[in-house]
Amino acid sequence: MRILVLIAVLGGCLLMNVDHSFAQLGPKQGGAAGQQAAGQVVSRITPEQLATVLTQAGMRSQVATTQDGQKYVKVSVGELKSPYVALGNCNNQGCGDLLFGAYFNADPNVTADNVNAWNAQYRFAKVYLDSDGGVAFELDMTLAGGVTLENIKENGRLFAALLTKYYEGE
Questions:
Q1: CA atoms of 148 and 46, how far apart (whole Å)
Q2: Model pTM?
Q3: What are the b/e assignments for 73-111, b being 16+ CB within 10 Å?
Q4: Cβ contacts of residue 58 below 8 Å, gap of 6+?
Q5: DSSP state, 131?
Q6: Nearest CA among 107, 86, 17, 157 for reference residue 115
Q7: Which end of the chain is more exposed for a tag (fewer CB within 10 A), N or C?
Q8: pLDDT tens digits for the chain (170 residues)?
């Protein structure tokens, strides 16, 4: 009987705990004001938010604008300065699609067979020859249904790792 009373008292103490941190939904916000938690789920992101997330992932990132006024994020991967992230499916709430990409000028040593062999060996990113003979390297990501900011960081890291492998000829 004493055990049942002890269990009831302890259970009552837990229920009266004002903090209830174990029952909170979603990630706890911490750090500087305005800083987004890595576990936050988003289905849209602005170019400015994306640049911040990729910087937090260790990539040098900055927002840039095309000649026709479209914002994108320039990123540096190692010595490569051409990588970018284009944003698609945008509205006034942000964008729902990301295209991590890089472009290389035409190289006569890069053939369709080389590109196909790379695509057969690696997942997630694709490489293709464009109509000018240049090489496009891309990794697509949709935010539909919601993804965490940590997932966006990991996709950025994956893009950087695969792009480096491709560039170094691995």
A1: 14
A2: 0.76
A3: bebebeeeeebbbbbeebeeebbbbbebbbeeeeeeebe
A4: 157
A5: T
A6: 107
A7: N
A8: 443 333 343 344 333 333 333 232 333 344 443 345 668 999 999 999 999 999 999 999 999 999 999 999 999 998 888 899 999 999 999 999 999 999 999 888 899 999 999 999 999 999 999 999 999 999 999 999 999 999 999 999 999 999 999 988 86
Give CA torsion, residues 109, 111, 113, 119, to 10 deg: 100
DSSP 162: H
Q: Are 97 and 85 spatial neighbours (Cβ–Cβ below 8 Å)? A: no
Query: Is-contact 154 141, C-beta < 8 A?
Result: no
CA separation for the pair 130, 152 (Å, rounded): 27
